[in-house]
Amino acid sequence: MKFPSVLVMVFAVSILASEVQAADAGKKRPMQIDDLFKFKRVADPQISPDGKHVVYQVTTVDLEGNKSSTALFLAATDGKTPPKQLTNPNGKKDTHPRWSPDGRTILFESTRGGTGQLYTIQPFAGGEATKITSVSTGAGTAIWSPDGKAIAFVSNVRPEFSELPFAEADKKNAEADKAAEDNPVKAKTFTKLFYRHWDSYVEDKRGHLFVITAKDGGWSEPHNCTPGDRDAYPNSTTFSVGDDFTFTPDSKHLVFAAAPGDGNEAWSTNYDLCRVRINNNKGPQSGRKPTEWESLTEGNKAADNGPRFSPDGKKLAYRAQKKAGYEADKWELYVVDVKPDGTFSGAPKSLTGTLIVTDGTYRESGQAKPEADDLAVNEFAWQTNEGLAFVADKEGRSFIYHMPIEGGKAHVNRPQGGSSNSVSFSADGNANAFIQVAMDSPSEVYTSRTIQKDMYVMCISHANDALLAELDRPRPESVKVKVEGGDMQMWILKPPGFDPAKKWPVAFLVHGGPQGAWEDGWSFRWNPQAWAAQGYVVALPNPRGSTGFGQKFVDEIAGDWGGKCYRDLVAGLDYVEKLPYVDKDRIGAAGASFGGYMMDWFAVNDIAKRFKCLITHCSVYNFESMWGTTDELWFDEWEHQGLPWEKPGSYSEFSPHKRAGELAKHKTPMLVVHNDLDFRCPIGQGHELFTALQRQKVPSRFVNFPDEGHWVTKPKNSQHWHKEVFAWLTKYAPPGGK
Q1: Helix, strand or coil, per DSSP, at residue 350
Q2: Domain 474-732: CATH superfamily, name plus number
Q3: What is the pTM assigned to this prediction?
Q4: What is the pLDDT of residues 585-613, one digit of tens each?
Q5: How far apart are alpha carbons 222 and 470 in whole angstroms?
Q6: Which residues, 6+ apart, have CB-to-CB distance to 279 below 8 Å?
Q7: C-alpha dihedral, 558 to 518 to 407 to 327, nearest 10°
Q8: Distance CA 634, CA 268 (A)
């Protein structure tokens, strides 16, 4: 299948914008903290079946009101008319828009009535949105059946009521929730693990799939298709790729990514693709294999997810890993022949295990240069019956790759700046919508359309043009640092008004994960532009464990957090200190999650004396206590290759708490941020670290958010977080060129 050079015009747009900005930088101002809350947050673009329109969501932050609101917008793919707001959520959130197969109706989720419920709106017929569900436990993540006569959605319900008729079960769920809310005793009782996750208590509720069908001009009562004591939807975002379930081509069954059964979901990554009829009313039997949930991928003991049927319904594509228990294993894209009811009629085949990429960015005698590439598949979508597109990370950015179903070969065009994701296609595959984002600009919706064999690419959302025009936003520079076995990629972002003749302080930032990466993208939590605008050169290294540099590079951090990765970061710091414009006496370091761990590890090693201060957010400080208090046990057990009593040395070797006495030796001032609702890196990690710092009279400050989880997301809290962090940095490594 031949793929056009769909992103060439994006290159031109990026170059032009940078040139204009550089020429006009003197008239612009640096970003301020409060600017982060003025940006519109654009997400989830969905192109219409006819390729003429895109619906997407835009979140607006009310900083003074300490809240946000999300509305749906509609834009023409040709960009000839300005976007228009499609819904008014009245201060609430309208999200997850999905077009009906005939392109007349948009289905979405809204909290405008309190709990999330499903609504529909006909964008070209006028009128208001219509509410189509009333489920006491809420309804979300809804999708259409291929024939447009049914809708499936997710709701978290009590499994003991799940085989009852809907009205009776819903009443019992509502009564149980009300009784718990009214009861002055707030005790919680648990009988199995995974009772809490990320930032909330799951208790014994399960994510089940429900279906409503068209009836008498409206919709039927919901029917629970997956009753029983097992999640029919990923209970960890680690194993979610968006819509993790789908109708079969005959519209009579659902194929979905089911969480591990048998009560081991806290330490297993064995997500299976399962299949049920939409009128199923039987759940898995206790202690037995679920006979009504047919597993389509039972042979794979690692994770499978993201089922997507081809437009003609003859093939199914999905993602899968190979190593059981390893959440950061390479995700490969598989395709298998199927029957209309979704059952396999052939053997699944990996399309991306061995991959040759034709990169349209680089030309030799007018021909694209093919090269082997080791890519892990993030999201993906069918373009036509003959080909798919997928998003993958590559060297600090993410790109959209196109490939035929024969597999083994893919084509990509890389914009000169930024990253691409969230791709969706029109029914004929000739038009698509996607998100384009960069370190100097937040997400916007772009479209590419084929007209008489020519491809046209343009931004159609323009949600942040006015604010961006005010700001001096430098572009990052990608550099290579020599490390053991090769090179490490690192971003260098200079501050607005940078003068190379002066000496500048540095903010040395370490990303989380550890299987993640600093990308040429945008974040509203850790935003490099905001740090640079304070008057710092920002260094963003991608050491061992970072994604987008091949699976071997990812794997090399397992069980070795304080080893090669640490030495990579030391090499990165060496590189930064040698830059002619860097003041090595004004360098501070910061990081969150794994990045926070590395701050704790820095603090107990000799590198500490090279930093004027450290900032650690929701870190891992004590591997031994972390195992028994974190939510996702599979992560710790893979990293340490066993349980604490089986591998005690592994849990202690690189644990900062074992070297706590070194804190007094270096006395590097440390800001500790940790949150009560962080169940990934529980609050005790922060308490232990701060106690060790204070006991040894190391200059330190503990900022605690009792109403936040692993991140700080509430607007006022986020504003306060930035003020605390930048004040600490300013105190010990003052900003600005000298």
Answers
A1: strand
A2: Alpha/Beta hydrolase fold, catalytic domain (3.40.50.1820)
A3: 0.94
A4: 999 999 999 999 999 999 999 999 999 99
A5: 50
A6: 223, 225
A7: 30
A8: 6
